[in-house]
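Deviations from the work plan: none for this task. Representative record:
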Amino acid sequence: MSGKKFSLQNGETGESLELPVRSGTVGPDVVDIRSLYGEQGVFTYDPGFASTASCESKITFIDGGKGVLMYRGYPIEQLAQRSSFIEVAFLLLYGELPNAEELEAFEQSIRTHTMINETMLRLFNGFHHDAHPMAMVAGVVGSMSAFYHDTTDIQDQRHRDIFAHRIIAKIPTIAAAAYKHAVGQPFTYPRNELNYAANLLHMFFAVPAEDYEVDPVAAEAIDLLFTLHADHEQNCSTSTVRLAGSSGANPYSAIAAGIAALWGPAHGGANEAVLTMLQEIGSVDQIEKYVAKAKDRDDPFRLMGFGHRVYKNFDPRATIIREACHRVLAKLGRTDTPLFDLALRLEEIALKDEYFIEKKLYPNVDFYSGIIYRALGLPTSMFTVMFAIARTVGWVSHWREMIIDPEGRIGRPRQLYSGPVQRDYVPISQR
Ligand code: CMC
């Protein structure tokens, strides 16, 4: 506790209550309201948790006003420029950057656990050919709890480590199997000599009929996107993983719940929605019309890839990715993509518009990530799956932190009930 206090006064009784205030290392203080219900018989009301810290965490810090994002204290700009996804994964999981030996051992462990049980592969045959890959990935990841009974004692640190390595190593293989099923190609087995991003591209794009060589530019782009997407503190899917896991549920099920939450267009599904929206807009001369639709309160249309619950200045990931987008498209020789031109024009128009300025709506990470994935040859329906692969590292890190948190309890929010008061059952003949 910081020693600071926050006073609340009950407007009816005049009684006041002093609540303890807790300070973190950076960021706003929090008022500890745990005694509120017991002492005053009231709950707090905060739909969407906009003012509620649901836990204490040491993993990721965001200052939405200043556009700051740090993993374990390291600014995202430095990690994007100088680190790699696997090193970032180690950092998020274990709290510190690895030394050379630790990094090699971690990478080796991930590289050598990429294969999935053959019977898991057969699950894909049960899905219709046009099943959305997110549905397949959520289902198959959930099924992992049926495969690894030996290591799901969540109180055992070794089991937690095995789970962490296993899910991080295998999720690209599961994602690739979903992709291959969707395009009707045979599954490509992982190759352990390749790094995380290169292996993923190999599993996606290699076919038995010809040789496939991973383009290092593409692998580098994936590594960067994964680094940027690896964690984002208590977002919707991460909170879902924590909540599902707080009951002591099997960790694979908790990750599957996170994948399901990520799928929504207000969250990870936005990268897919951005491309769909750009295709719908179609040409630069249509932009004004769609911007007007986005501003119309009676029209449910929103500019996908714009706005963020936390970032009210700029999304630092978007700044990095925007620049990477230019670089990657140039290196891949795809600068002439009309969708990218359209995206840039839309960004320019929206950024000058009073509505977007006033509501502090800036392009977010997903505004650009889809354009890069598209340039790498991935179908739109795979974009959110790519996000899920990267975010698995964050989910697992938060799940681990939650399991050993001495203050951790089952997540169980309260409510403001506004339904009918007690009434008597009416027999059907009298209704
Ligand atoms: N287009 C038009 N208007 C918008 C948009 C948008 N993209 N986003 C927010 N607004 C308006 C909204 O209508 C509201 O207006 P008013 O005050 O008049 O009612 C105001 O801005 C505040 O919006 P909100 O919905 O209360 O804000 P929120 O914090 O609840 O939602 C958001 C944040 C990201 C869900 C929302 O901005 C949105 O739906 N954006 C589009 C989807 C998107 O790009 N999501 C990806 C987020 S980044 C990746 C990730 O972290 O998952």
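The two ends are 57 Å apart (CA to CA).
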